[in-house]
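HOLO CASE FILE
Compound: pyridoxal-5'-phosphate
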Amino acid sequence: MKFETLAVSGFIDLKKQNNAVSTPIYANTAYSFDSVQHAVDLFDLKVAGDIYTRISNPSWDMVEKRLAALEGGVGALITSSGQAAVLITMLNLAEAGDEIVTTDKIYGGTYNLFSKTFKQMGIKFVFVNSDNLEDYEKAITEKTKCIYTETLGNPSIKVADIEGLAKIAHKHGIPLVVDNTVPTPYLCRPIEFGADIVVHSTTKYLSGHGNAMGGAIIDSGKFDWSQNDKFKMFTTPDESYHGVIYNQVFGEAAFIVKARTHLMRDLGCCQSPFNAYLTQLGIETLHVRMDRHCENALKLAEYLEKHPHINFVNYPLLKSSPDYELAQKYLKKGGSSLIGFGVDGDGTKFIEALKLFVHATNLGDVHSVITYPAGTTHRQLSEEQKIKAGITNDFMRASVGLENIDDIIEDIDNAIKVSRS
Ligand SMILES: Cc1ncc(COP(=O)(O)O)c(C=O)c1O
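Model generated. Tokens follow.
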């Protein structure tokens, strides 16, 4: 099946769902066991099946199967939020004393999670402040367990060189983890460029309507966890499952099975079946929405670039973008909806004059959303950290929605005028 068909019709089993055309919501927490032996086998991971909605649910299953197929992976796990997806992924790879190499051009919430919460757990994140691949390689030590990046950095809107990073990671026997929230698999499939694990905030484009928190982890199934002794969690017995060795029993799905059976079981950051249902509906229209997001964003970026009172415009598909070449390789179908720009005027007046754009901290919604990172999402960073993350005081981040582009441009144009009055 092609992408669009998978998104709309993939994995529907009409008989199993009483011929209901829209997959129902399984709003249950528990599942009855066929026999005591059946329960024992489920708990020993000897047979597949549902035990409790903290670990799996049929409403998740549909979303997980579709996401795994759309990203080109062997399995997926959905989570309560994007933050939870990143948390589980990192804890599935690293323990106290380990290190992870990343960039400082990542989403502010992920930056905090890495620099504060993981520090408390004894896991050290090294933030590379450069686009140079050699600088990533220099940051790798014997203790490094993965390289982590965002395909399109939020809010810096930098395009990652996924293939280059994957080569470095694999040379050092570690996986590459990519947050693919902003392009979604419709615009970029990181696994095709060598990424091993993909994570998402499904809160954004995948659910698409600003109404369902959620996250996802997709396992490419390609990383060999037994190639060195860095990933003993997959190659040695797990006592909490009667000594199961994930790599031996689950083969290429070892990572995603352990993420679910060990970490989701223990941490409980699970998605509600209702949110899974909303996410599934969102995925069914993803391709149609993404095309319009991209079309509107490119038109607005081109307009802003010519505007005399705009200090700069970041959009990877502008020919003037330093990332234009990378975007040609990784974003062939479009540059997604995020635009960064600097207003030569009063930032507060600009934000408050907008009538169509909603002032909020979200992206990937059908509504156009404006965010003022220096005053909100990145407020907690020091001045030095803000500069490193590319957040200046005039920096606005727009997520261009699906309204008519003429109305979108008129709204921004009017707010620029007010900001200078
Ligand atoms: C790129 C990226 N990753 C992860 C997250 C965290 O996702 P959530 O808000 O669903 O926890 C966000 C949220 O804005 C994000 O933009």
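CASE NOTES: The chain has a mean pLDDT of 96. The pocket of pyridoxal-5'-phosphate is lined by residues 81-83, 107, 109-110, 150, 154, 179, 181-182, 201, 203, 213, 215 (CB under 6 Å).
CLOSED: yes
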